[in-house]
Predict the structure.
Amino acid sequence: MSSVRDVNRADLEMEEVPVTTAPLQAAAFHYKAYCKDINDTFINCRYWKKDPRKCLTEGHEVSNCAIRFFSFVKTNCNDQFIPFYNCLDNGNMEYKNCLKERKLFDNCMNAATKPE
């Protein structure tokens, strides 16, 4: 039987996504679209292989996509993103309290990701 001892520690080391709950919550809808294919590949791997150790490469790709996504947000829509996640953070993580901020962020992201 396999165990955690069968995993090489070096295979687990990678850059972490440097965000907390509020930014994750604020960006969730756009992150889902941005990283959909990579996330689906990871979920399918976990489902079909029934062993998370066999999906480490796919897991790394999920983390890398999240890092690229938040870098994209910072480059393109940071001025709209910060007020939105601060509103969520200060408003009990309830979207209804942050509709104006969400609309500004959504509009920016939709414009930034729109195919030319």
